[in-house]
UniProtKB/TrEMBL annotation:
Keywords carried by this UniProt record: Membrane, Signal, Transmembrane, Transmembrane helix
Residue spans crossing the bilayer: 122-143
The UniProt record lists the keyword Membrane: yes
Phylogenetic lineage: Bacteria, Bacillati, Bacillota, Bacilli, Bacillales
Tagged with keyword Transmembrane: yes
Leader peptide range in chain numbering: 1-22
Protein name, per record: DUF3592 domain-containing protein
Length: 151
């Protein structure tokens, strides 16, 4: 009896743990500057395209749906964002979907908080500055050491 119960429990464990879940998104979106924009099936003509303002840098997690930074659920990393002349960036931006083809993306809501936003926006730049400062200090110390050794 005990062996049958153990076998049944193991079998149930394997059956229940093989379930695969993937998200289905309600609409294609891009995230820029802490805001989520819904990408419409509305083209933007080249004359309305302003300067480049950003690009897709991350993808959402397919299982949890969580994302951070400039992300998109529909476009690959490197997809560029542009301002649309005459429209505030808080209202809409243009997403380059192909060479010289842009779609309008309208503001939907602010992006949810994610701790990686703080890391990528504040901590990584500070670490970069510290590394540069250390390298400069090492170069200055080596230069002074050589100068003193030659005198």
């Amino acid at each position: 009896m005990m062996k049958k119960t153990a076998l049944l429990l193991v079998l149930l464990f394997f059956i229940s743990s093989t379930t695969v879940v993937a998200l289905s998104w309600a609409y294609p979106f891009v995230v820029w500057n802490g805001n989520v924009y819904k990408v419409l099936d509305e083209s933007v003509i080249e004359d309305e395209i302003g300067k480049k303002i950003g690009k897709v840098k991350t993808k959402p997690n397919d299982m949890s749906g969580r994302y951070y930074g400039d992300a998109s659920n529909a476009y690959p990393r490197g997809t560029k964002y542009f301002e649309i002349k005459g429209i505030s960036n808080e209202e809409a931006i243009a997403v380059e979907v192909d060479d010289n083809q842009w779609k309008k993306a309208v503001f939907v809501h602010e992006a949810p908080f994610h701790w990686m936003n703080i890391v990528t926006k504040y901590i990584i730049p500070v670490i970069g500055v510290v590394i540069v400062a250390i390298l400069v200090a090492i170069i200055v110390l080596l230069y002074r050491g050589r100068k003193e050794a030659n005198s």
